[in-house]
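Structure ticket #2291
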Amino acid sequence: MPDTEVNSMGLQAFDTLKRENKINRDVASNRFVNCVANAITREVGGEWEVVVFEDKSLNAFALPGGKIGVHAGMVDLVDNQDQLAVVIGHEIGHVIARHSNERLSQQVGTNLGISLIQAVAAPQTALGQTAIGLLGVGAQYGVIMPFSRLHEAEADKIGLDLMAGAGFNPAESIRLWQKMAQASQGLEPVEFLSTHPSHASRIENLQANLPRAQQLQHQANATGKIPRCAK
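Resolution: structure written out below.
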């Protein structure tokens, strides 16, 4: 599908989410999330809108069109700026790699593009659920459409490089996914793991990519990129 159409879907979906979900107004949480997100998006370029949602589930997402959503539950879970950078970097990685576009293109004909854009505004409808699920925010409406193993590995790698290039510590990616795995053993479902399946090889792959990412961090720090985002 044309990127302009997919971006329009992302914008429409984000507007719908903001309209239907309570937005977190806590000053400290918003400052923390925006500090981390802004440091990473500077590496990407473009205009990005960041919203913290008043939702205790462990979830975060990024949408085509430059939109980032982080749930308050995810903010509570992370120990530091680096762990949140892992999450946000991973989500932006999906957008940069155009994974939503690939999923939409694989499952629908381009002639449905316009109706899909309109359907995103009505996520309760069957077509709307399909569209919003393919964009990667279906968990908000109970529609789980996990990204493929290939997409996950690609987003992990891109996200690790992004956060390291912004000066964050990529080694915290291991701890973050360990924390997510521990959280998933509780009674509450972990939406982030539902839509981003945790494979046994994930931490192994991250460890394999760490040396390169740590070099990127050292280079970033040497040029003055030293994020100071206090939780």
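Closing remark: Residues 3-222 form one domain.
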